[in-house]
Amino acid sequence: MTPSFYNQPVLNSPYAQPSRHHMLNADGQPMDLPPAQGRRRSELITPVPKAKKKPAKVAQASFVMPDAHGLSTEDQEYNPTPIINEIRGYLESWRAIPNPANWGVTPATQRLLTHWRQHAFQSVRPFFCQVEAVETIIWLTEVALRDRWHDKFRLHLQGANEANPELFRLAMKMATGSGKTTVMAMLIAWQTVNAVRIPNSSRYSRGFLIVTPGITIKDRLRVLQPNDPASYYRDRELVPADMLPDIGRAKIVILNYHAFKPRETMEVSKTGRALLQGRDAPPSTIESDGQMLKRAAGDLLGFKGVVVLNDEAHHCYREKAVSDEDLAGEDKDEAKANREAARLWIAGLEAVKRTLGITALYDLSATPFFLRGSGYREGTLFPWTVSDFSLMDAIESGIVKLPRIPVADNLPSGATPIYRNLWDHIGKKMPKMGRAKAGRGNPMALPNELYTALYALYGHYEETFKQWEAAGIAVPPVLIVVCSNTAVSELVYEWISGFERDGDNEQNPFLNGHLRLCRNYDDHGARLPRPRTLLIDSAQVESGEALDPAFRAMAASEIELFRKEKIEREGAAAGNEAFTDGDLLREVMNTVGKQGRLGEQVRCVVSGPC
Q: What is the mean pLDDT of the chain?
């Protein structure tokens, strides 16, 4: 029998260019056909549901604009994938040139490319998709954009950056799980080594600003710091040993985009403000660009140009004016939140350019698409995207696993199984707001379909847990549950792990968790010193409320290891700082599944927005 996607999803090596692919239908779903030869072309597949409402007598058209001026609107869709496919062709020919002297790049870049392609890695070898993403940026920077023959790429990218009028961005689309952090480390290495060895070049910098959308991502990226104990440059051998001193000269600042919001420089009452104003203009008590950047990224103020890396960059663009008259309820709130986040993020980058200068700006995201409320057609690809490695590509290369969904459907109520598209059946029954607005909900009042789905997934988890235990694997498998908002995530977390409520009016002050292996309490209602289930969202991470008071004593050796690493990373003064429960919870979260670390025995992670 000829293998199909469903019985043999993996077709290619993760370390070589894909040579086969599964056929997809018009909706991007795999067809039950034999694999096709060759690499799948980059294709425009809109990753959002079809619009519920369409303006009358308006046809949606997809077209390619040669110079890329103009972006997708509700009436027409701009498709940048032909340029991506053309760049792939040039890259393949360039990669095949045998003599490095003919690559058209600097000697330092030659060394790095040779290392990434040919080095016998002792630990984690870079995937093809990671090397290709960096090769794309290098080729555009050092070969194409400085060659008059390739003016069309420069003109295309200038036009494509219409949504960033003051910035010049290049985006890399990489499937979740395909290793964006490694790509960031490789870009930092390439820029830094060239900046050190060609100090007067305006093309390179050893100053880096990494901007993230949330706390959890920021914490995970600390491996990009050259002096981090788990630094990728050393631990993953991403640079030759003789280049490590050059990497040590990089200055890297990692921040959440929220840090771009200017703060009050002084607290002034309404009466005090009137007194200060007098007959003159009102006093300015809001940070200037320079003050904001000194607070948020002070270590970079001495640089004349920095490299910016946007992680999960789909949150960042300059929106067009748009009306919300066709939106209501949650859709309208979502559009407003998207606009506010994008406006703050890109305004911060514009301030960086005005104050420090930006040498290069790179976006990395699995979904570099315009969001609702952007003024551009929702779900269309950023037109400045130059590299594409999709989820299907990652699955076919064995880099990411197929997602598992509950399919044991014992509630057949329609033409399709409920649990295959669970949200369609329970979305209107779920809490709609964040935790603060929704108030204290009841974990036992969620839809029955959700409980059944969780039990179905847990049944598979329990079987896997037993197999790992029998095989002597020291760390447990981890069940991950992703929720739509913080109100839902808290209730699901409590249902799984158990909960206790304070107050005389509570009829059931304690209820143990429903998934036995993931409970945070023993059979007598005593809290376990080490949590088996974590709730990860911004509020929870900052509060540290998931940690039992006995945790510090139980995990003393792991906490001391964390302290030593912090000293190595940040200097001796860091060793004198007391760890808050929030600090420890973030470290637990960052080390899930790592033997001998704080998160070693975590079995379940319930995630809300971070």
A: 80
Integer Cα distance of 233 and 237 in angstroms: 5
pTM, rounded to two decimals: 0.78
End-to-end CA, the chain: 46
Residue 520 falls within a domain, yes or no?
A: yes
Number of domains comprising the chain: 2
Q: Which residue type is seen at 370? A: F
Residue 48 DSSP SS3: coil
Provide DSSP, 66-112.
TT--S---SSEEE--HHHHHHHHHHHHHHHT-S-GGGS-S-HHHHHH
Surface-to-core class of residue 104, CB atoms within 10 Å of its CB (0-12 exposed, 13-18 middle, 19+ buried):
middle
Instruction: Give the relative orientation of helices 180-197 and 128-138 as an angle to the nearest 10 degrees.
Output: 40
Residue 205 lies in a domain: yes
Q: Please give the Cα distance from 289 to 348 (Å, whole number).
A: 8
Task: Give the model's confidence band at 65: pLDDT under 50 very low, under 70 low, under 90 confident, else very high.
Answer: very low
**263-286 tens-digit pLDDT:** 887 666 666 656 666 556 666 678
Q: At which of 341, 364, 396 does a domain end?
A: 396
Short-list 397, 364, 333, CA closest to 127: 397
Q: Is the residue at 300 inside a domain?
A: yes
Q: CB of 109 within 8 A of CB of 194?
A: yes
